[in-house]
């Protein structure tokens, strides 16, 4: 525990054994397993948290404990849209064991917060704008008492008609003082009068995917003797969370400390501080540690989701299938608050034509407020929705012209030096054609025999109700792209310190390990540069310099780059005395396998002998080249870099029942450079599986703004039985010269591409248009052939 945390614990007579355990938690900080040999970049170094997770000792936020602990519960609105007439907390305050009740009247600082736009209230005061919006919070001696007390708060509502259709939001009464329109991007590129010989149109709808974290949100707030508070939680951007929380408490940021606990994976769901803010208020009010462990229902109600999207497309092509013009209208349902909708819309509009050369493009994009659940960051936001739509259009063009879908994509494939519809030149490697060829040419899986006794799976499962004679096999392609790092002028910077003492290296960087493998990468970088076998990654808290959010592959590039620069500075400090002694420059010395040698073989020693009790350290920053916002015509160099992926899906469809089984996903991906083969394969496989969920099962359904079945029974996640064979047929390593190590982020682009590939394969099997995700059974029913 840090000194500040220990002081706070002593001041409140708390004992936090689980917080102490964070020192060994990866990404919140971890050291290597001692039996593992030194391995640098390019090796499959095993994650340091493997043992802790398999043994059940990994310290998640829900495991935290403190002496004198109180439990929190939050009262949430049962209505998607209502006027609050009164809030009576007396019933809760009079209950035995209740220590505090807070509402909007008890927020001492800013009553609104927001990571991108400050428009979301800590507690609703006059209006409720979505189902599950927080109204009040309670702290009590027992979790059941807290829940009962929250339920005892009497709120009188005037129920209002919710606005749930984003198309009606334009003309509806304003749902928020900022209005219903969050952003409009009219992209104009080329000649509006251009036309093609072949024109196809389509209307597409993408559902509301939930990030569905492995563990629901949880946290612990501990008051400090200086009147501040420490919050222990699975934050993915602790410094921004700290600043938002401090503003709501009316405190200086230095009096709020966020300590990152073990994050059980994150695809965007850990970025909303709305769960943490009530905790700190209750801790400050009671002077005691306060813990919240959300139920699965609260998790569904409280965090943001993928934007439901409506897309209208018109593609123009010549007789050979080369694209001439793309016209599109894209409408994102932001839900009640803005959150990341502006950024998601920018990605959707910029990538609306896909990784294809399009001479003329005219795209209209809008993000609007409704009374639906709030939307925000989910891996591949914006890009996933448009990929499903433009790939549907490419399949329509191929069918209309009468050419192979893969061939059509090859004729239009983007490459380095081409220009995006935003006017930005693609300067990074863009091996789109090579990716398409790799999945096209990969061997197809064997066909099952039409024998009911054969041990092969029907789309409904081994014991499914379908008949093999009704099963049709389909093959489809998806090609997708995402941007790396932030966009439109975001200041991407990260700071890291590398310290070596007694032969052990420590990395201090506030980059949170969310499952993307940063702590493993940081260890590999230091091992590669310094030849030190034992490398530890310190626990993350806001006493360290900021590293930014764990989105868009930032930490591989920006934080990994900062670690590399700091390690190279330490390397220079290590080698300078030797170089001076032998009259040569440090560039003529190399470190490999724990040994230091000179180019001519005169010098040969070990790293450990050279260190010999020395303490060396250096701090460095990494900041990529700047970008710029899109202008009023959707033009501008908005992105630092791009990553691409191609997927070929093979599915079996029961055309009588409409059930779908994904047989195989063949993947080819543009990765820049493979830094950890095993970790990279895992990230790609996980992304493909998440994409399959978006394609077939995952849709957080609402009825007039009310979330239906907010649990893992009503929200169908793909399981191991739903996961197909995932074959990585090719990884193209064309290094991006402006990226540290030349590597590209790996996990988002498979999520973006997989749903489009599955939809294309279902089209191939059924002949149906399949223009909605997730694919409903009725969309996969077709008349049997022959």
Automatic annotation (TrEMBL):
<dbReference type="InterPro" id="IPR008274">
    <property type="entry name" value="AldOxase/xan_DH_MoCoBD1"/>
</dbReference>
<dbReference type="InterPro" id="IPR000674">
    <property type="entry name" value="Ald_Oxase/Xan_DH_a/b"/>
</dbReference>
<dbReference type="InterPro" id="IPR046867">
    <property type="entry name" value="AldOxase/xan_DH_MoCoBD2"/>
</dbReference>
<dbReference type="InterPro" id="IPR037165">
    <property type="entry name" value="AldOxase/xan_DH_Mopterin-bd_sf"/>
</dbReference>
<dbReference type="Pfam" id="PF01315">
    <property type="entry name" value="Ald_Xan_dh_C"/>
</dbReference>
<dbReference type="Pfam" id="PF20256">
    <property type="entry name" value="MoCoBD_2"/>
</dbReference>
<dbReference type="Pfam" id="PF02738">
    <property type="entry name" value="MoCoBD_1"/>
</dbReference>
<feature type="region of interest" description="Disordered">
    <location>
        <begin position="1"/>
        <end position="52"/>
    </location>
</feature>
<dbReference type="InterPro" id="IPR036856">
    <property type="entry name" value="Ald_Oxase/Xan_DH_a/b_sf"/>
</dbReference>
<protein>
    <submittedName>
        <fullName>Oxidoreductase</fullName>
    </submittedName>
</protein>
<dbReference type="GO" id="GO:0016491">
    <property type="term" value="F:oxidoreductase activity"/>
</dbReference>
<feature type="compositionally biased region" description="Low complexity">
    <location>
        <begin position="1"/>
        <end position="25"/>
    </location>
</feature>
<feature type="domain" description="Aldehyde oxidase/xanthine dehydrogenase a/b hammerhead">
    <location>
        <begin position="55"/>
        <end position="161"/>
    </location>
</feature>
<dbReference type="InterPro" id="IPR016208">
    <property type="entry name" value="Ald_Oxase/xanthine_DH-like"/>
</dbReference>
<dbReference type="GO" id="GO:0005506">
    <property type="term" value="F:iron ion binding"/>
</dbReference>
């Amino acid at each position: 525990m840090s000194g500040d945390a220990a002081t706070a614990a002593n001041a409140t007579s708390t004992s936090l054994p689980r917080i102490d355990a964070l020192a060994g938690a990866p990404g919140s900080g971890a050291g290597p397993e001692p039996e593992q040999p030194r391995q640098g970049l390019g090796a499959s170094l095993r994650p340091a948290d493997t043992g802790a997770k398999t043994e059940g000792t990994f310290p998640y936020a829900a495991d935290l404990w403190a002496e004198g602990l109180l439990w929190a519960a939050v009262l949430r609105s049962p209505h998607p849209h209502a006027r609050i007439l009164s809030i009576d907390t007396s019933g809760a305050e009079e209950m035995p064991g209740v220590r505090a009740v807070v509402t909007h009247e008890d927020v001492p600082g800013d009553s609104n917060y927001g990571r991108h736009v400050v428009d979301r209230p800590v507690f609703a005061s006059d209006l409720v704008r979505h189902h599950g919006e927080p109204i009040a919070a309670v702290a009590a001696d027992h979790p059941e008492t807290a829940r009962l007390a929250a339920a005892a708060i009497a709120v009188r509502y005037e129920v209002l008609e919710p606005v749930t259709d984003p198309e009606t939001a334009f003309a509806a009464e304003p749902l928020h003082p900022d209005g219903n329109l969050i952003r409009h991007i009219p992209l104009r590129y080329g000649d509006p009068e251009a036309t093609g010989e072949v024109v196809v149109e389509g209307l597409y709808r993408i559902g509301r995917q939930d990030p569905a974290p492995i563990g629901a949100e949880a946290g612990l707030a501990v008051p400090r003797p200086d009147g501040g508070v420490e919050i222990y939680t699975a934050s993915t951007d602790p410094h921004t969370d700290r600043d938002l929380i401090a503003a709501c408490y009316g405190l200086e940021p230095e009096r709020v400390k966020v300590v990152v606990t073990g994050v059980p994976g994150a695809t965007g769901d850990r970025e909303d501080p709305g769960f943490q803010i009530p905790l700190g208020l209750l801790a400050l009010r009671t002077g005691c540690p306060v813990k919240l462990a959300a139920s699965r229902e609260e998790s569904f109600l409280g965090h943001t989701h993928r934007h439901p999207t409506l897309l209208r497309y018109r593609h123009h092509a010549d007789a050979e299938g080369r694209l001439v013009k793309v016209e599109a209208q894209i409408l994102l349902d932001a839900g009640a608050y803005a959150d990341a909708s502006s950024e998601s819309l920018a990605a959707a509009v910029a990538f609306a034509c896909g990784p294809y050369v399009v001479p003329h493009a005219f795209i209209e994009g809008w993000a609007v407020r409704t009374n639906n659940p709030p939307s925000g960051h989910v891996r591949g936001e914006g890009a996933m929705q448009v990929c499903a739509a433009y790939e549907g259009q490419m399949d329509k063009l191929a069918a209309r012209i009468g050419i192979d879908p893969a061939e059509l994509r090859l004729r239009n494939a983007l490459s380095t030096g081409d220009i995006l519809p935003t006017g930005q030149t693609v300067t990074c490697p863009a091996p789109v054609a090579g990716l398409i060829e790799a999945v096209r040419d990969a061997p197809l899986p064997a066909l099952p025999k039409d024998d009911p006794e054969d041990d092969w799976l029907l789309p409904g499962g081994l014991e499914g109700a379908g008949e093999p004679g009704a099963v049709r096999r389909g093959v489809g392609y998806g090609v997708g792209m995402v941007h790396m790092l932030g966009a439109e002028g975001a200041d991407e910077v990260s700071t890291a310190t590398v310290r070596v003492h007694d032969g052990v290296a420590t990395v201090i960087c506030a980059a949170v390990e969310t499952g993307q493998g940063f702590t493993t990468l940081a260890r590999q970088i230091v091992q590669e540069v310094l030849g030190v076998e034992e490398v530890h990654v310190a626990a993350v808290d806001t006493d360290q310099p900021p590293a930014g959010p764990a989105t868009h592959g930032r930490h591989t590039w920006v934080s990994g780059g900062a670690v590399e620069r700091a390690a190279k500075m330490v390397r220079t400090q290590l080698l300078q005395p030797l170089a001076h002694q032998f009259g040569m420059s440090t560039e003529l010395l190399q470190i490999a396998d724990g040994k230091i040698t000179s180019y001519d073989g005169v010098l040969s020693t070990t790293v450990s002998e050279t260190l010999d009790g020395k303490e060396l350290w250096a701090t460095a920053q990494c900041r990529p080249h700047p970008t710029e916002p899109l202008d009023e015509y959707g033009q501008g160099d908005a992105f630092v870099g791009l990553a691409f992926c191609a997927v070929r899906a093979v599915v079996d469809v029961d055309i009588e029942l409409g059930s779908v089984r994904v047989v195989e996903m063949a993947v080819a991906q543009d990765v820049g450079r493979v830094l950890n083969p095993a970790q990279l394969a895992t990230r790609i496989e996980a992304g493909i599986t998440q994409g399959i969920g978006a394609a077939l099962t995952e849709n957080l359904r609402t009825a007039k703004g009310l979330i239906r079945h907010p649990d893992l029974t009503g929200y169908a996640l793909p399981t191991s039985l739903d996961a197909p064979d995932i074959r990585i047929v090719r990884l193209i390593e064309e290094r991006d010269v402006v990226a540290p190590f030349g590597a590209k982020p790996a996990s988002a682009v498979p999520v973006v591409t997989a749903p489009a590939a599955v939809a294309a394969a279902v089209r191939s099997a059924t002949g149906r248009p399949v223009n909605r995700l997730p694919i409903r059974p009725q969309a996969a029913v077709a008349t049997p052939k022959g």
